[in-house]
Amino acid sequence: MADFFFIFFFAAIFCALLSPFQAWTQPYDSSVSTRLVLETSGLIKRYIMNARKDKWNSVHELPRDPCDEYGQCGPYGICRVDKPIRCECFKGFAPKSQKDWDHQDWSDGCNRITPLNCNNGDGFLEFRRVKYPDMLKYWLNLSMGLGECRDQCLRNWNCTAYANPVITYGGSDASTNLKEKEKKGTAKLILISIAAGALVSGFINGAILLMTRRKRRAAKKNDGNDLELPIFKLATILAATNNFAKENVIGKGGFGPVYKGNLSASEEVAVKRLSRSSSQGIEELKNEVFLIAKLQHRNLVRLLGCCIEGEERILIYEYLQNKSLDYFIFDENQRMLLSWPKRFDIIMGIARGLMYLHHDSRLKIIHRDLKTSNILLDANLNPKIADFGLARAFGEDQSIARTKRVVGTYGYMAPEYAIDGKFSVKSDVFSLGVVLLEIVSGKKNRGFNNHDNCHTLLGHAWLLWKEDKFLELMDESLNETFVESELKRCVQVGLLCVQKFAEDRPVVSSVLFMLGTDGAVLPEPKEPAFFYERSLNPITSVSSPSMKSDNNTMTITDLEAR
């Protein structure tokens, strides 16, 4: 009854989610807070707040164990909750694909090691505490003993199993005991799966398997044919990266590791390999290929080709010697290499690249994950926007879209996207504003800590702007190279881009105009998103610098961070 109530309770409040993944509830006892979390794996967890320890305690979850998931180990597989390796095969069976099992993909199940031979002493194995399969038909014989039942099942090759079950109300949780219990005068309830049931279920499973295989073959056949770019052989990639040697790893993201490769003595490439444990998958890879293959701009990274062979999914890009922007601006030593003129050029280059995506390309592209680590720098420190795995193409007249799967990086996401899943060109502009303020200040928005009355870099910049102290936001390494009018415009435009409401933010074409026009009259920015002031006693702040006060009125939970 408790489980039933929990499921019903969850269904009743699911429509009131505050985010795509979390629901808050208020029980009859107003002193107790409880919440339900639907994880991306499908697991439902219920938490109750422990007020004394100020932490959430997990008190209930469904399903209770992995073996409650249907078909966890595939045909002829056994799911075990008491062992580290969840699935194993029945005796006399072996994994259908050992490679898949090595990667903990058990869905294809097991095959017989030797063919079944009912005339050569083959028999049945006994299993206890198992759930009945979904049988469409069965034989029920109240007068037959368990031994007779076994003999008849042996004579019928299509007989899957036999049992002397104790059936409880509902039947699904009945325990099966295959040991014969003869009691005179007691009717025996004998359940035998018959040929009809086995054949029907076999036909259904066979049809599903056939359709799945056809889809896989069709997908593999088309993987490399519709991409409109060169296809590299896996052998070529292995040779270029020295068999994906660890010393050739130059980066890692949500997609997987990135390797430096040499196709020839004069041609270096960046090889992006999809990892099995990646938070992204084949759909994101295809999305990136189909989008970026159609895009050509000096401020976008250039895709040279791909490799889709066997289980490998690989993208090949131009190699950019100077890594990503975050490597420079957040490092005490490397930031010295970026003077103000160079930083201003980088800002303008990023804006031009985004302008192309939003307005000038054949497709209207929303990047959705613009951040400093996705801005790569070439030999001359020219910026190139990279990583289009999460990008989305808009229709010609489309201005906004909504998703239930919020993906991206906390600190760069616009509030309407992080909370409601709404994204548009204005959500990209918000990310651009964060990047712009990070370039000016040399500080990260995420994890920003300053002993004043704000929580984020955006709030810090806003307070300095209101007090006409915008120069204090500037990276100290720029003291001898900055141009005050340009720096002021950058701070002001950055704050305009990160305003709370999307309609208050400029489009990227206006951003370019404001940045590039000296003397232009710019609108006054409003309060930025994610801005919360704190009332701290100055003495307390000085004496306890490690203490943090958090008055956030919003909670973002279970975002897919990258």
UniProtKB/TrEMBL annotation:
Location within or outside the cell: Cell membrane
Coiled coil: none
GO BP of this protein: immune response; recognition of pollen; signal transduction
Membrane-crossing residue ranges in chain numbering: 189-211
Record-listed E.C. numbers: 2.7.11.1
Region (Disordered): 543-562
Chain intervals with Polar residues compositional bias: 543-556
Protein kinase domain sequence ranges: 244-530
Signal peptide as annotated in the record: 1-23
Annotated membrane topology: Single-pass type I membrane protein
Reaction it catalyzes: L-seryl-[protein] + ATP = O-phospho-L-seryl-[protein] + ADP + H(+); L-threonyl-[protein] + ATP = O-phospho-L-threonyl-[protein] + ADP + H(+)
MF GO annotations: ATP binding; carbohydrate binding; protein serine/threonine kinase activity
GO cellular component: plasma membrane
PANTHER family, per the entry: RECEPTOR-LIKE SERINE/THREONINE-PROTEIN KINASE SD1-8, RECEPTOR-LIKE SERINE_THREONINE-PROTEIN KINASE
Stated name of the protein: non-specific serine/threonine protein kinase
